[in-house]
Amino acid sequence: FGDKFIEASNMLSLISIAIPGLFLNNLTGIVLNSAYKEKLAMRSTMIGAIVNVVLNIILINLYGIIGAIVTSIITEYLILFIQFYFISRTNIFKIRSNNVNKL
C-alpha cells in the first residue's frame, strides 16, 4: 500500500492508547447515571470537551495530526479521572451496616 499506509498505521497504533480510557469512561458514566448523578457525568464531559477544543487549537497548530491524537488521549483520561473523583466523592458504593446485618 505504500508509505501512506505505514504512516496511517502508526497513527492508528498511537490513537489506540485512548481506547482503554474510552471504555472505562463509558463504565464510569453508566455508574454515575445509574446513581442519579447525571449532572456530574455531564459536567465531566463538558470539562473534557472544553479542554479538548483548547488543546486541539494549540496542539494541532504545533504538531498536526500528532497534536490531535495527543489531545484525544489526554481528554479521554482526564474525563476518566474526573468521573472517578466524582464517584469517590459520592456515596454510590457505600455499604450500610444495617444492610449487611440483614444478610
H-E string: HHHHH
Low-pLDDT segments, ≥5 res: none
Count all strands and give the number. 0
**Domains (count):** 1
Overall residue-averaged pLDDT value: 90
Please work out how many helical segments DSSP would assign: 5
Oligomer: single chain
Distance between the termini: 63 Å
What proportion of the residues form beta strands (DSSP E)?
under 5%
What Rg do the Cα atoms give?
Answer: 18 Å
Helix percent band: over 70%
Largest sheet: none
Structure write-up:
The protein has helices spanning 3-15, 19-34, 38-63, 65-89, 97-102. The chain is mostly helical and 103 residues long. The chain has one domain.
Concise description?
The protein has 103 residues and is mainly alpha-helical.
Summarize this structure as a short list of keywords or feature phrases.
mainly alpha; single chain; 5 helices; elongated
Could you outline the blueprint of secondary structure elements for this entry?
Layout: H1 3-15, H2 19-34, H3 38-63, H4 65-89, H5 97-102
